[in-house]
């Protein structure tokens, strides 16, 4: 049997329970999942997934001043004139994906 070393990590109890629930459904013990993550760190030579700040929520009309609203309209008109347009269906898919709307 291969030698092993211990890894200790402090996580919130709720996070641990939620992760264990998902891993149990997949049939993967927590220690195997941690090992898989560490192997990917080594193979990828970094964190094995994209890390970025979440997108900001779309602007709400009520939160804009008249000046800010006018500026946003101008940006939109520039995009239309430049041909940077998307179908309503494509926007709906993105809004659902990114913001749960």
Brief overview:
This protein has 101 residues and is mainly alpha-helical.
Could you walk me through the main structural features you see in this protein, from its secondary elements to its overall organization?
The chain has helices spanning 13-26, 30-44, 66-81, 88-99. The protein has 2 domains: 13-44, no CATH class; 61-99, no CATH class. It is an all-alpha fold.
List keywords for this structure.
101 residues, mainly alpha, 2 domains, 56% helix, elongated
Note the main sheet.
none
Count of the domains: 2
Which percent bin holds the helix content? Answer: 55-70%
Give unreliable regions as ranges.
none
Structural class: mainly alpha
Give the termini distance in whole angstroms.
51 Å
**Number of extended strands:** 0
Tally of DSSP helical segments: 4
H/E element string?
HHHH
Radius of gyration: 22 Å
Mean pLDDT: 90
Determine the strand fraction and express it as a percent band. Answer: under 5%
Mass-distribution shape: elongated
């Amino acid at each position: 049997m291969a030698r092993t070393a211990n890894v200790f990590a402090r996580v919130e109890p709720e996070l641990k329970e939620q992760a264990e629930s998902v891993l149990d459904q997949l049939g993967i013990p927590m220690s195997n999942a941690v090992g898989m993550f560490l192997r990917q760190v080594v193979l990828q030579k970094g964190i094995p997934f994209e890390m970025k700040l979440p997108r900001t929520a779309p602007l709400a009309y009520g939160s804009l001043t008249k000046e800010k609203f006018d500026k946003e309209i101008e940006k939109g008109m520039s995009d239309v004139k430049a041909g940077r347009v998307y179908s309503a269906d494509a926007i709906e898919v993105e809004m659902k994906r990114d913001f749960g709307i």
